[in-house]
């Protein structure tokens, strides 16, 4: 496969998912809970979108591996497609259009291409060896990180401060207090706003591979940095720092590690 065909195939996978998710958004649909002691929702939109993506991958690239949030892992060769059919299901079931379908491609253990599709706003954030792009209404705009270097000047996103518990709580609160502005609950959309130059920092805990693999190329190709809190790669998930510049990334990592 060439870079161009990777791009077109990601777009076709997003089209297949959008056909499932968009008709169910802001409709009264059933919601199941995956957990006993907490609330982790899943809907037929999640399951149906992942099935549609998997079917198209299996038809086009039967030797490739697939990892998805709802249906687990099908092992294959050196290429792996990593799927979160609806990243932000809580947003989906509450009618907030900041959820998205995440589809990432890994080759030999590295995230090389990815897409975030938000069909209600008509947006795709897409990246690979060809670069990083924002697609909407037929317009293609390059994604470019901005140059913020100091935490005091940074806009930060995170899912919820509840994720920062125990011995990291005070360190996270010190980081949040030092930022210019912090917003919560944006899920995958916040990462894309970082890549598009509207924010500077994303901090998260305990991400799974399907939460982040698609977003790694989008941020990196836009000029940003993605790592775990030790500075390592995020393809296997974990605690995350994504930042606009090396200086901002290093400052956030120092504060979070204490």
From TrEMBL:
Mg(2+) binds at residues 69, 84, 86-87, 211. Its cofactor is Mg(2+). The keyword Magnesium applies. Gene3D superfamilies: 3.40.190.80, Fructose-1,6-Bisphosphatase, subunit A, domain 1. One of its GO terms (biological process) is L-histidine biosynthetic process. Pfam families: Inositol_P (PF00459). Its EC number is 3.1.3.15. The keyword Cytoplasm does not apply. It catalyses: L-histidinol phosphate + H2O = L-histidinol + phosphate. InterPro entries: His_9_proposed, Inositol_monoP_metal-BS, Inositol_monoP_superfamily, Inositol_monophosphatase-like. Keywords: Amino-acid biosynthesis, Histidine biosynthesis, Hydrolase, Magnesium, Metal-binding. Coiled coil: none annotated. GO terms for molecular function: histidinol-phosphatase activity; metal ion binding. Pathway: Amino-acid biosynthesis; L-histidine biosynthesis; L-histidine from 5-phospho-alpha-D-ribose 1-diphosphate: step 8/9. It comes from the Bacteria. Belongs to the inositol monophosphatase superfamily. This is Histidinol-phosphatase.
């Amino acid at each position: 496969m060439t870079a161009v065909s990777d791009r077109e195939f990601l777009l076709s996978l997003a089209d297949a998912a959008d056909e499932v998710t968009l008709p169910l958004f802001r409709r009264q649909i059933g919601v199941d809970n995956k957990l006993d002691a907490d609330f982790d929702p899943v809907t037929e939109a999640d399951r149906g979108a992942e099935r549609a993506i998997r079917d198209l991958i299996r038809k086009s690239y039967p030797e490739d591996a697939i990892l998805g949030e709802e249906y687990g892992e099908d092992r294959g060769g050196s290429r792996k497609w990593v799927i979160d059919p609806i990243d932000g299901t809580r947003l989906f079931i509450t009618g907030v259009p900041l959820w998205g379908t995440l589809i990432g491609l890994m080759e030999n253990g590295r995230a090389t291409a990815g897409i975030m599709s938000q069909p209600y706003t008509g947006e795709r954030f897409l990246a690979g060896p060809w670069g990083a792009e924002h697609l909407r209404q037929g317009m293609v705009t390059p994604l470019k990180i901005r140059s913020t270097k100091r935490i005091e000047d940074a806009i930060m996103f995170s899912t919820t401060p509840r994720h920062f518990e125990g011995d990291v709580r005070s360190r996270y609160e010190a980081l949040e207090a030092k930022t210019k502005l912090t917003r919560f609950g944006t899920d995958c959309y916040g990462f894309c706003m970082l890549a598009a130059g509207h924010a500077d920092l994303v901090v998260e805990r305990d991400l799974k591979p399907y939460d982040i693999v698609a977003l790694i190329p989008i941020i990196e190709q836009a000029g940003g940095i993605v790592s775990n809190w030790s500075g390592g790669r995020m393809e296997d998930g974990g605690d995350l720092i994504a930042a606009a510049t090396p200086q901002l990334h290093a400052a956030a990592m120092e504060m979070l590690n204490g």
